[in-house]
Specification:
462 residues, mainly alpha, 68% helix
């Protein structure tokens, strides 16, 4: 007799059962990340002990036992041996202007505030992807803002008529011509001579990057640089009625931001050009780029600053002088450009060969292929390395104190010498405040780079 078989087909899907309590929620996270094994348990206990040993004393020193009001060191000195006194925040309040402006004249500090405000107004919209007008915003921030900030901070009216002609000994004929016709002949002759040299270098760089068949683009680049340099020279040579403020009076956060922002904005484009030059097929360009990169990467930044501050003036003619802060800016920018070039070169080497072949199949020349296909992908891959270089550069600005340029940390150390605020906790308060300032800037750059990397990493989204 045949066996009877029965079958059952469910008409509805079974409802999903909740995961065990030990596999999800805070309990599951703690089990997998904190107590999953014996080494994890030991590390968790060590971390808990470390937090207990460091966080409560810091909170007591900087907040609970801290002194918040006072006019002199008397407020931060213990009245009795048993009294516990923490951070002396009145010291920071009393020296705040020195930490922000250095020795910049008090009557002219509105110019520094205006430069800060304009920089923030132009930078914040540039960092928000949803806002429109990025091309105009970038043009204003990277093109117009440096000139406006330079005029605001220095006062402008640099009298550039004899900058290059005077060095060549050719200024007298143009001065006579200018007096005869009532025009600034020496300035315009000096502008033409300087602009021709700079435009020629820019055209050569454009030709190198764009590759063969880029004569039209190189000529356009030369004319653009020629006109832009003319506008810059006119702007910095006009008398705006602002009192001149020498850079030796600058200090504090002003110097730190000037050096950091200049180094960051210069190092990225120069680093890209050096990376492309190192991969160039032209022997002269390739060898020159390699020598430049290896030289600057093989020399400590302290040595660069010492050479730019103390050795470089010995090699300059007697009639030619360069501002001390400008020498430090150039040294820091070149140093950072060499490191940035290696970061960008790593991104270029990570691009698969198929990307080049696909661009060539579309009929793109070498310049368009590099600008539209290769470079965007390479820069996206090395965003962490680029921002890491920026953060290192921001922290390395403290080294300029060695060459008597008072940045934020240098102004803080100068404030320690005031006997009116000599207390046992002044030193710890100052360095704690400085660490908080540097952390806020560096942490902000780090978090923004992570958000940018996540937004651009569309190829790996599920």
């Amino acid at each position: 007799m045949a066996a009877l078989s029965h079958s059952f087909v469910a008409k509805d899907l079974l409802a999903a059962e909740p995961a065990p309590a030990a596999e999800h929620g805070p309990i599951g996270w703690a089990r997998h990340h904190l107590f999953g094994s014996v080494p994890q348990v030991l590390l968790t206990l060590f971390g808990a002990w470390l937090l207990y040993a460091t966080i409560p004393p810091l909170v007591r020193f900087f907040i609970t036992d801290a002194v918040w009001t006072g006019d002199s060191r008397a407020a931060c000195v213990p009245a009795s041996p048993d009294q516990v006194v923490g951070a002396c925040w009145p010291f920071i309040a009393a020296k705040f202007n020195q930490l922000v402006y250095g020795f910049y004249p008090e009557a002219e500090r509105w110019r520094v505030n205006l430069a800060y405000l304009l920089g923030a107004v132009l930078l914040v919209p540039l960092l928000i992807p949803a806002l429109p007008g990025k091309r105009l915003n970038a043009l204003l921030f990277f093109g117009a803002y440096p000139v406006v900030a330079f005029v605001l901070l220095t006062g402008g009216n640099l009298d550039l008529r004899h900058s290059l002609l005077g060095y060549l000994g050719l200024s007298a004929p143009f001065d006579a011509l200018g007096q005869a016709f009532g025009v600034r002949a020496a300035f315009w002759a000096d502008y033409v001579l300087s602009a021709v040299v700079v435009a020629a270098v820019a055209a050569l760089i454009a030709r190198m990057v764009a590759g063969a068949g880029a004569e039209k683009g190189a000529a356009k680049t030369a004319l653009t640089v020629f006109a832009a340099l003319g506008l810059v020279l006119l702007a910095v040579d006009i008398d705006f009625g602002l009192p001149s403020v020498e850079t030796r009076l600058w200090g504090g956060l002003l110097v730190t931001l000037v050096i950091a922002v200049t180094g960051i904005t210069v190092s990225l484009p120069f680093g890209i050009l050096l990376a492309l030059g190192r991969r160039s097929e032209l022997p002269l360009v390739k060898i020159s780029s390699i020598l430049f990169i290896e030289f600057w990467r093989g020399v400590p930044l302290i040595t660069v600053l010492f050479f730019a501050t103390y050795m470089l003036p010995l090699f300059l003619p007697g009639r030619l002088t360069i501002d001390g802060l400008l020498r430090a800016l150039v040294g820091v920018a070149l140093f950072a450009s060499a490191y940035m070039a290696e970061v960008v070169r790593g991104g270029l080497q990570a691009i698969p060969k198929g990307q080049y072949e696909g661009a060539m199949a579309l009929g793109l020349n070498s310049g368009l292929m590099m600008r539209l296909v290769v470079l965007p992908q390479a820069l996206k891959l090395v965003i962490p390395g680029i921002v890491n270089t920026f953060i290192g550069l921001f922290k390395d600005t403290t080294l300029v104190l060695i060459v008597s340029i008072f940045d934020f940390l240098g102004s803080l150390r100068a404030a320690f010498t005031d006997p009116n605020w000599a207390t046992p906790t002044t030193l710890f308060t100052g360095f704690g405040f400085a660490g908080l300032v540097y952390f806020l800037f560096c942490f902000g750059m780090s978090r923004y780079s992570m958000a940018l990397e996540k937004r651009l990493d569309v190829g790996r989204r599920h």
